[in-house]
């Protein structure tokens, strides 16, 4: 009966209690009774069903979040005898909570339509003002912890897009190291695991490994195993290791070809993994042609492997542009194998192998970088 009375008062916009303890209890009951997503006692958002909210159209989402905010503010304002410090705490908690959902929605709808841009720009502006280095709030508010995690993931995405071929993880690590709150750094550190890869510089990989080893001393066994696996994969693809041979590709006549069938023994190899739909790949074609002409007659073979979704588009471009070298095609299924075999994350990817079949660089410089290419060819003995 008492619960029904409290809910009724909420609907009227008033919760009246005789003392602070009762007021807090009534407020918490009333907030739980609202048709609004709410943290459980554990403060774990993962237990919530938020899909309907995140699937809304932008205008509907903005209105719904706005309605939530009004409900929270109204409940706080109309619950009598709440202690001032409790009210201040709840206002901050509610703000973080709604910002968390905005960050979730933003991350889910990054490819928004032009007509929806104003709504997303407003969310971007709000999120940009969040202080992501507040150690006290990180421990006190579960919603703030989730919000900071989301914003860090978005920052990683931004760096990867902006510095795709220029050691992006080195820049992400430098940004991470500006954080002063050790509890936040410890919590976010494992998000850097992906950065241990051939696309990162040797210096960046060493720094990331040291950081993650320090932060996984007290971690669960699963995290330690994941770190060990990533390090072993990095070592497998280091210079001096045997080059992992590929299979499953076909030539321009659809004839199956394996790495061994190319008869490349005693020759250096320069491999280009590319696709016709990739602008950065197409930009490198003229420089790659020049490179092949410059080393014509030398003991080096240039192998280009397309990972196009459309095989006919690849064939057409090779014939139309009269591209030099050995041209092979890897189907989407084979590309998945390449992802594991060479830690292939983006294209174009260039790889260099010496005459003994050993890796010289699993992430070689682009042909357009003439200075680095000259150094690479010198290392290959050419």
TrEMBL record:
Pfam families named among the record's database cross-references: Redoxin
Record's subcellular location: Cell envelope
Top-level lineage group: Bacteria
Keyword Disulfide bond: yes
Keyword Metal-binding set for record: no
Protein's name in the database: TlpA family protein disulfide reductase
First-listed, main subcellular location of the protein, grouped into a coarse class: other
Classification via InterPro entries: Redoxin, Thioredoxin-like_sf, Thioredoxin_domain, Thioredoxin_ResA/DsbE_sf
Biological source species: Capnocytophaga bilenii
UniProt KW keywords: Cytochrome c-type biogenesis, Disulfide bond, Redox-active center
